[in-house]
Design a protein that fits this description.
single chain, 281 residues, alpha/beta, Rossmann fold, two-stranded parallel ribbon, globular
Length: 281
């Protein structure tokens, strides 16, 4: 990893597990200091301890990113406590398995507050902070491969991810003259707590990741972290960890009927699963 990142300061939201935690450790290995935020104190402190064992500083802030004004305060906190701000990785977010017609207004608005509005608020505030200090910087946001094609029962989640991608794309060219890079990150299925948390939030039976995704679509959080670090060295507008899925998304755009066939099959699979779970044994 390039030593040019040594001494830089990064903010990571959703840093207590999965992609956020893996990226935090990768950044520490590259010589960065970090401000970590999430809702689980013990998990955050564990990641922070690992960062400090690498000889880097770690500031822990336990909070929900959707708290009013919280995202806007993070850049100033990084500057005050760690001395500067160079990178922001807006990674906090969650999924919910629910047909759109069954979602409540509250569920839909809360998902957008966490996945979209809080993250965008952080990027906007960080951009203003970087512009004022004339240092440039790098802003990233965890979107998803489903930003390109929504799955049945995950329409709301996919909508937040598509919105994230659109904002990042626009900001990339708005901020380029000011030396600030912007990228959206598009992982596929990762071996993290994501699907367990989806099950808990949705009130649906837990579905092991290997049961709904083929092996070639399952990746580790560390793989995503490596892709993020590569983007810091070689900036690009979109960070993908699967060339095949990226190519497939282009094919789906060119040939919607192919995507329709895929989604029709996935919808049938979901219905059979729900029916099997609701049938008394």
């Amino acid at each position: 990893m390039s030593s040019r990142h040594a001494g830089k300061v990064a903010i990571i939201t959703g840093a207590s597990s999965g992609i956020g935690a893996a990226t935090a450790l990768a950044m520490a290995d590259a010589g960065m200091d970090l401000l970590l935020t999430a809702r689980r104190t013990e998990r955050l402190e564990s990641i922070a301890a690992q960062i400090r064992s690498r000889g880097r500083r770690a500031l822990v802030v336990v909070a929900d990113v959707s708290e009013p004004g919280f995202s806007q305060r993070l850049p100033a906190l990084a500057q005050e406590q760690l001395g500067r701000l160079d990178i922001v990785f807006s990674n906090a977010g969650y999924g919910l398995e629910r047909p759109m017609h069954e979602m409540t207004d509250a569920e839909l608005r809360t998902m957008f507050e966490v996945n979209f509005f809080a993250g965008v608020a952080l990027l906007r505030e960080a951009a203003q902070h970087m512009i004022a200090r004339h240092r440039g910087g790098h802003l990233l946001m965890t979107s998803s491969c489903v930003s390109k094609f929504a799955l049945p029962s995950f329409g709301a989640y996919a909508a937040t991810k598509a919105a994230q991608e659109s904002v990042c794309r626009a900001m990339r060219f708005e901020l380029a003259p000011l030396g600030i890079e912007v990228a959206s990150v598009h992982p596929v299925s990762t071996t993290s707590e994501f699907f367990e948390q989806v099950s808990t939030r949705s009130g649906t039976p837990s579905e092991p990741i290997h049961e709904h995704a083929p092996a070639w679509l399952i990746q580790s959080p560390e793989r995503v972290a490596r892709a993020v670090m590569k983007c810091l060295d070689h900036p690009r507008s979109e960070v993908w960890t699967s060339h095949l899925v990226r190519a497939s998304s282009a094919l789906f755009t060119l040939c919607p009927s192919i995507l329709d066939a895929v989604l029709r099959r996935e919808a049938r699979r979901q219905r059979r699963r729900r029916e099997a779970c609701s049938t008394p044994s």
